[in-house]
Each structure stands twice: as C-alpha cells, then as structure tokens.
C-alpha cells in the first residue's frame, strides 16, 4: 500500500486524498456518505502507522513544533514533526498517529518574504507569521507553513531543505556548508574543501556549533560542553592533580558527579 495523505475537506461533499504519484478528488452524494468514507480512510491511515515503514522513520526526529498548515485556502494549526523524509502533522502533541503526512523527497521548499522586508527596514514591525511554501510536481497545489518566530522559521527552512534535497544555499554552519560542497563535488579527494578549517584538526576553541541546532540556548550549551571536553582532554593528567582532572570530567559529564 502506498503512503497516502488525507487532506482537509475542500467543501462539504468533496475531499482530497494524495499519494506520492497522484491526487484523488472524491465527492459524495451526502454529508453522511462523505463522513463515513473519512472515518474509513482515517482508520486505514491509523493501521498504516503501525507498519514497519512508519516505525522505521519514527525514531528519526529532526524537528518538531506548532505550525499552521494552509492548503486550498483552509488553515489548520498542527503539531508538526519531521520524521526522516516525512513531515507529519498531528492534531496534538499527545497524538501518535498523524492525520496527514508529506513525503519531502524532491519537494521544493522556499521562504516567502514578509511585506516589511520589501522596504528594507532595519527593524521592521513584527509580522504575524513567517511563511514557508512547499512545492511538488506531484501535487497540483502548494502547501504553506506559517511559523511564529524568525528563529523557528530559519530552523524549519534549513531542515526541510536538507531532507528534501533542494540544497541549503547559504544556510547552515560552515561545517554543513563544507559537507554540502563536498557532496556537490562527488567527494573529490583533490578538492580544496577538505582543507577547510572546520574539517581539519585544530587546537583552537570552537566559536560556533558544527551543526544547526533548533535554538540559540542549545547552541550556547553545546559550546559550553565542547569547552569542558576540550579542557579535560588537553590538561595533562598528574597524580598530584587527579582531583582537578576528575572535576573536569564531571563538568563535561554531570552524570559522573
């Protein structure tokens, strides 16, 4: 059975079912018939969620948070989780079965500029939402994701671009940019990218995280952890100062305290 996406009702008697290869628009004669079919299709989706495929992608959670999904002019606030190659939409954080999911491979993800950005304002009036648009050759209409903060928008945009394979452009950390350059060069062993400071050994302390993290707070904690580990591995172990060395290890790994 192919993965299907059960989308919102387009009207009282019409709803849409999307698969990776085609989209079906189904219309019933009465609302009772439509509701009956929706219950059956939701039941099938729940059954699908217990298959090995869903269990396989379930553990690969890259991003999660509340997004407003807009399609066909209707909007719905969803708990959204990026599992592997699938962007899954849930009615609440406690739900284990998504009511909708999108296979991100070959989906083009772009950012829509807010009206304020057109005027080049240095500190524009906060816009209600930041918007990402997902375009697919397999789908006749685009999907819009409304995100509350710039920080969340940047993080979602980066991870969705990586998963979809549409490229990160000038996004991400220097390490991630270097990795994508190598991939684009088919990992050419003669590439100068291998000599990048982020890919070679250095005794200097890191000033930025190697990978993109969801929040600034996590970035700060990651750098603190690096400094603790760096200090532990560079301080010479001497018997007279063994207590100090143990203290350094405990700072790096609080569970040892």
TrEMBL record:
Keywords: Repeat. The keyword Coiled coil does not apply. Residues 1-46, 60-165 form the PH domain. It comes from the Eukaryota. The keyword ATP-binding does not apply. InterPro entries: MyTH4_dom_sf, PH-like_dom_sf, PH_domain. This is Pleckstrin y domain-containing H member 2. It comes from Desmophyllum pertusum. The lineage of its organism: Eukaryota, Metazoa, Cnidaria, Anthozoa, Hexacorallia.
